[in-house]
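Support request, please re-run this one:
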Amino acid sequence: MKVGTIQETKIEEYRVGLTPSGVRALAHAGHDVFVEEGAGDGSGFGDGQYKDAGATVCPSAATVAAAVDLLVKVKEPLEPEFSLLRPGLLLFTYLHLAPLPELTRALLESRANSIAYETVRRPDGSLPLLVPMSQVAGRMAAEIAAQFLKKPGPGRGKLLGGIAGSSPARALVVGSGNVGTAATRVLLALGARVTVTSTDLQRLAGLEAQFRERIATRVTSPAVLEEELRDADILIGAVLVPGGIAPKLVTREMVRLMGSGAVIVDVCIDQGGICETSRPTTHSDPIYVEEGVIHYCVPNMPGAVPRTSTEALTSATLSYVLKLADRGLAALREDAALAAGASTIEGKLVSAAVAQAQGLEYTPLDQALK
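Re-run finished. Output below.
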């Protein structure tokens, strides 16, 4: 199969879908690999490294997309990239389609076959291609919250860990998955006083066992959120609805309760965010202030550490890329995890969560593959 990757066009997105070592693995398996010129520069991988690994370096994304059967990316195609989509092209990337009806329509109309990293799911329920980026985003969320809590800037000028005679910052983490766990670990290391809320009692018990008396845990409810957010210094949104839209758990009134100079890092913004006041921002303009509270809502947070993120992500995706390169759509029949990631097949929407979110017709995968 012909496999390729292109330079990401999302604002300040420096990750890349394939590393030179990934190219080498594909070439060793007998596949032809095409890489857009400069695609790996942001992650520290030069064109020469790709050539040495066996790739053909092409002058444009259009050249790569026209040449390949399987296009491997990091982020969802943006509108200027819709023209790259075509019948029979297999696209493997993060999609987060639920809040993106325009992209869903483009994929369906183009009859491109798409598989979303974030919904590839193993039989045990784990999401292997979301875990590494969730861990990066969770750790970053704690660091970012600490940064914007300080001055100069609109933060309230508080040290996360406090010192003798001054209490530490109060942080609320909503969600107990990979993002929430990673954020909690860093917040605790920096000395914050942390409460984690979730509807998953088993995960909360696991966090209590892991961090012992260093954290408090509560079951998420409107009353609990209102109580915990009153005068809180930090809120980290870490709720995951695989393939769907994040629930709006935090109202504008709850945000107002935090008080001026508090910080929200809504890691769920890829799925719409958990706060009524959340809207997407960028790495170049990452924050805004609403209700006196600083909001950081960058959808591609791990893009700020592209070398780490690319190495972690491609280590997780490569085995699936190889399966798709070897078997094409047949891999969806043979691998239940890949099948769970399927989003659009031959102009049909095969993701039930996206169909529900957008009010579109859903087609079971086995029917679409006939």
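The chain has two domains: 2-127+306-368, 131-304. The longest strand covers residues 193-198.
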